[in-house]
Structures are given as structure tokens and as C-alpha cells.
Design goal:
The complex is a heterodimer of chains A (about 240) and B (about 260). With about 240 residues, chain A is of the alpha+beta class. Chain A has four helices and eleven strands. The two termini of chain B are about 35 Å apart. In chain B, strand 7 and strand 8 form a beta hairpin. Classes of the chains: A alpha+beta (about 240), B alpha+beta (about 260).
């Protein structure tokens, strides 16, 4: 028994926030929003409000982490205590440590780290308000912040989740669907190569459902990619 | 944690062998190393399992306690999974609180158990909203020679199956007296891990292969052939075709691992 679970998450073929199964929430991205950071981005994605900043390439502290042949890419995902209904204790927890790791590994494949040996490139993601799908929104923001900082990259990395709700495969879960749905699958890709840099999943999917959700998430990523490019164009017009 | 290093010459050797269709330890691409599972060797734990995959050794202990349920699930027991990369297991493991690798390992094993609905949590309720059984799964890595995910998740399920409730007297646990009653296990999730090395996909990477791999994919499947957890790792990428092939192979390979659960 789960307290607070709505009786149904899909009513008359529509989701509880009125969307179709393959419809995304509204996404707004702005690049270059912070003064001091080398690059930054702000993403509003449905009810998510997320800031990302990039510093570097810069000197590595502590020194023993220096990589002689490439830049050290570091990433910290953090949630503000007031970003969720029940106040989140400040500081890293196990979830945010895992998200920081998978976010770094989602971005690492596109960054030309070998151009900057013995340096660090630091990415900070601050979730100011969370409403489901923050890791995808965080990766999306972080990759725009990296580009805004002028870090050489193969491509941007958009991310988007698909999932299973009331037996239906749906795109871009919001918090109720995330909490009470039957499955969630965040995906990040390199759009030009169509390669997958982040793939996680929980819930229960059959083989057909898996493939359907996976393809749908990639379609969502392509939509996010357009928004990312648009934000960078607006910044440097 | 400091990182293992591998000589360039060995890296090149592993990669060139793979191009010829061979692995450094002579296995086929989709072949596991020798596996053994021993359960119940540690009596103080309610359940335990020692899993060996090749030279990798992981000990998993299950302890049961009583505590409060979460407010959003007042009639359900609680599962807590932790992993320790014990310093005796590798020269690169350091003492101290769990690092991101230990946390990821614990969370991926936890996800497989939780999402497959392996444990019937409602049967772990003692007094609704007040008292429930808490299942602690503790993963102790003893010898690290690659593929901790599969060894740990296999060990976790084996230890859960091995666990017996201790005696309960006036809501006090008498740990010295075990009952015959096992945990309400209704599903056995199995995790299988694949590594991508220079465009080749191999199952169950050993340490050398992990050191040269570009990316890793772990898939948890249920007995019915559903997928219940996935985790991509490493700083490389997978193509969509590779992912779809891996998830098909994972179903076949999970059947082999399931044989080790009694």
C-alpha cells in the first residue's frame, strides 16, 4: 500500500497534467545566466527549475587528482533543501552521489578532455525546484553550461526519460508519475552519433515495452537537443 | 580511491585479442568465469552467502531488525542495502566512508531487489504504522577481480533466500534463536553485466577488462523475463543496436546464474 497514490494516473487517454503519452512538458533553456561562472545555464522543464555552472579548465585541487594526459571532469549534483515538498537535508546523500557520477559519465564522452591535460573542469548542478526528471534536466543544463564556457565538445548531450504509467509507455514523467508509476528510464544521447551516454532504468518492462520506451526517450532527447541549440544561438546572437 | 593502472602493452594485447574473437583468459565473449555460491556459513547473520566469480569474492550478510515503516508505506517492511569496498580486497580500496563506486554498487543491487518486487514487503509488517521488519543487506567485497555487480546481486539474493527470522518475544528479538521461517521471497532478480571494449561486447569483465573498457551495462531481469533495472557505467557510449542486443543476451545468461540459487 502506498499512501497518496492517485487511483489512476491516466484518465480518458490523458495523463494527470493533461498531456498525451508522447508529449513533453514545456522546456525553457537560457545560457549564460551567472556572472562569475565560466559558463552557465538555467533550465525550466515543467516544474523543474535547475541551474548549472561550469568552471574550467582550471588548476586541480587537491593536486593528487591531477591526470597527466587529460582534464579531470568533475560533477556535483545537488538539491536545495526547499526544492521538494519534505525538506531535503542539505549536503550530499547516496542518491545525489550516484546522480553526480552518472551525470559525469553522461557528459565525459563528448568533452575533449585530452586538450587540457593537468586541469580540472568542474560542473555544478543545483536543483532549485524538483518535479520529476531532475537528472535529465540537470544533464541538459550542464551540457549547455559546458558549451557556454567554450569547452570543446563533440556535441551537446540532451537527456530525457520515458516510463511506464498505468501500463502505458509515456514520455517525460512528472513527479506523480515518477513516484507512483511502474517504471522510469532516463536516457542521454550524443545526437549526431545517436550514441547512448546515460541509460538507467527501474520498474518492470517487458522486451517490447523496453524497446518502445527506449525509442521514445531518444525521440524526447532530440526535442531537448533543439531547445539546447536554440538557447546557445540566443546567447551569442 | 586511487585507481588501478594497466600497462599500455597489456591494453593493446587485450584489444587485439578481442579483434581476433578471443579474450585474455580464453573465455568466449558471452561466457561467465567459474561461479560458486555458498550460503549459511556465517551463523550470526540471519542469512549469508559467499559468491565467487572467478577470483572475485563477495560476502553478503542479511540482518533483520525492527523499526518504523516509512510514512508513505505504513504496512510495508523496509529494505536497506549497503556495500563496503573493504581495503583488504584491492590495493586501490581505501578505508573510510563509502565512495561513489560503493554507493553505486549498493544502489544498483538495491534497485534489482526492490524493482523486481522480490520481497513481499507487506508480510514484513508487525504493527501497521508502528513496527515493521527491516531487512539489512550488507555487501562486503573481499577480493576484487572485476564484475562486482553480478557477484554482489547474486550474493544478495542467495543471502535473502538463506535468511531465517530470529525468534520474536514480546516484540524483542532473540537473535540467538532462529526460527524455521524464511523471508517472503516471491521473485529472484538476476543481474548480468557487460563491458564494451573497443566496439566489442563481453559478458562478466574481469579486472583487466574493466580497466580497459569504455563502458559497462548492468541489466537486472526477473524469472518471467522482464527487465527491472538497468545501469550504464563508464565514460564511453553504447549504440542503440548494442543495447538491444545486450538486453536479449542478458535474459539467456540470467538463466545460467539462476541455477546457483539452490
Amino acid at each position: 500500500m502506498k499512501v497518496g497514490k492517485p487511483e489512476r494516473l491516466i484518465v480518458n487517454g490523458k495523463r494527470l497534467d493533461g498531456r498525451d503519452f508522447d508529449e513533453m512538458r514545456e522546456i525553457k533553456i537560457k545560457a549564460g545566466v551567472l556572472e562569475r561562472a565560466d559558463g552557465s545555464a538555467y533550465v525550466e522543464w515543467g516544474g523543474n527549475k535547475i541551474l548549472a555552472a561550469c568552471y574550467g579548465p582550471r588548476e586541480v585541487h587537491p593536486k593528487h587528482l591531477v591526470k597527466p594526459d587529460k582534464a579531470l571532469l568533475r560533477c556535483i549534483y545537488s538539491m536545495a533543501p526547499f526544492s521538494v515538498s519534505d525538506r531535503k537535508k542539505p549536503g550530499p546523500d547516496r542518491r545525489s552521489i550516484e546522480i553526480s557520477k552518472v551525470t559525469r559519465q553522461a557528459l565525459e564522452p563528448v568533452v575533449f578532455t585530452r586538450l587540457f591535460p593537468r586541469t580540472a573542469i568542474d560542473i555544478f548542478i543545483e536543483v532549485l525546484q524538483a518535479s520529476g526528471g531532475t537528472r535529465c534536466a540537470g544533464i541538459t543544463a550542464a551540457s549547455v553550461a559546458l558549451a557556454d564556457a567554450g569547452i570543446p565538445m563533440q556535441d551537446l548531450v540532451p537527456a530525457c526519460a520515458a516510463g511506464k504509467v498505468d501500463g502505458e509507455i509515456v514520455l517525460d514523467l512528472f513527479d506523480l508519475e515518477d513516484n507512483y508509476g511502474e517504471g522510469d528510464m532516463p536516457v542521454a544521447i550524443i545526437p549526431r552519433k545517436k550514441e547512448v551516454t546515460l541509460l538507467q532504468m527501474d520498474g518492470k518492462f517487458t522486451r517490447e515495452e523496453f524497446e518502445k520506451a527506449f525509442k521514445l526517450a531518444i525521440k524526447g532527447c532530440m526535442h531537448v537537443y533543439e531547445k539546447q541549440k536554440q538557447a546557445l544561438k540566443e546567447r551569442y546572437e | 580511491m586511487s585507481t588501478d593502472v594497466i600497462a599500455e602493452v597489456k591494453r593493446d594485447y587485450i584489444i587485439s585479442l578481442l579483434q581476433q574473437g578471443e579474450r585474455i583468459d580464453g573465455r568466449k565473449f558471452y561466457e561467465y568465469r567459474n561461479i560458486s555460491v555458498e550460503t549459511g556459513k556465517f551463523e550470526k547473520a540471519e542469512g549469508s552467502a559467499l559468491v565467487k566469480i572467478g577470483n572475485t569474492q563477495v560476502l553478503v550478510g542479511v540482518k533483520l531488525g525492527i523499526g518504523e515503516p516509512y510514512p508513505d508505506s505504513p504496512d510495508m517492511g523496509v529494505l536497506t542495502t549497503s556495500a563496503e569496498l573493504v581495503p583488504l580486497a584491492s590495493p586501490t580500496f581505501e578505508p573510510g566512508p563509502p565512495d561513489e563506486n560503493a554507493i553505486e554498487l549498493a544502489r544498483v543491487v538495491d534497485r534489482g531487489i526492490r524493482e523486481s518486487e522480490c520481497i513481499d514487503f507487506e508480510k514484513l509488517c508487525i504493527v501497521e504504522g508502528e513496527k515493521v521488519w527491516i531487512v539489512f543487506v550488507d555487501i562486503h567485497v573481499l577480493d576484487y577481480d572485476g564484475n562486482l555487480f553480478d557477484a554482489s546481486s547474486l550474493g544478495a539474493i542467495a543471502a535473502l533466500l538463506n535468511a531465517k527470522f530470529p525468534k520474536l518475544e514480546d516484540d524483542r528479538i532473540i537473535y540467538s534463536e532462529k526460527t524455521n521461517q524464511g523471508l517472503p521471497i516471491i521473485e529472484k532478480p538476476i543481474e548480468t553485466t557487460f563491458a564494451k571494449i573497443n566496439n566489442k561486447i563481453v559478458l562478466d569483465p574481469n579486472l583487466d577488462e574493466e580497466l580497459v573498457m569504455d563502458a559497462r551495462l548492468t541489466i537486472a531481469t526477473t524469472e518471467k523475463g522482464e527487465y527491472c533495472a538497468l545501469q550504464k557505467g563508464g565514460s564511453g557510449t553504447f549504440s542503440q543496436e548494442e543495447i538491444l542486443e545486450i538486453i536479449d543476451v542478458s535474459i539467456e545468461k540470467s538463466k545460467e546464474l539462476r541455477k546457483f540459487l539452490r
